[in-house]
Amino acid sequence: MEEAAAIFGWPNYYLPFLMRAGHLKPLGKPPQNARKWFATVEIERMSCDPDWLDKAIRIVEKQIQEMNRKQRGEEQSQKSLAP
After folding, report:
1. Cβ neighbours of residue 74 under 8 Å, at least 6 residues apart?
2. Where exactly are the structural domains of the chain?
3. b/e 58-72 (16+ beta carbons within 10 angstroms → b)
4. Per-residue pLDDT tens for 68-82?
5. Cα 65 from chain centroid?
6. N or C: which end of the chain has fewer CB within 10 A?
């Protein structure tokens, strides 16, 4: 997974977002917590496809925004519960 992220020039934590969305599929059918493997030829092909990259970045940005929104919501709930 680290090598795939390096080919894209992205941090490692982007790839799980793409896999959850079904936009990036590992080889075989690995269990959720198993190491993921990807075909280098496919990763290189996707890294040269502007449409695929555009959609991938949109997916990642949306997921990160949702995570941040949830985190802010929890922080605000805890602040409102404080005496």
Report:
1. none
2. 2-81
3. ebbeebeeeeeeeee
4. 988 887 666 555 555
5. 12
6. C
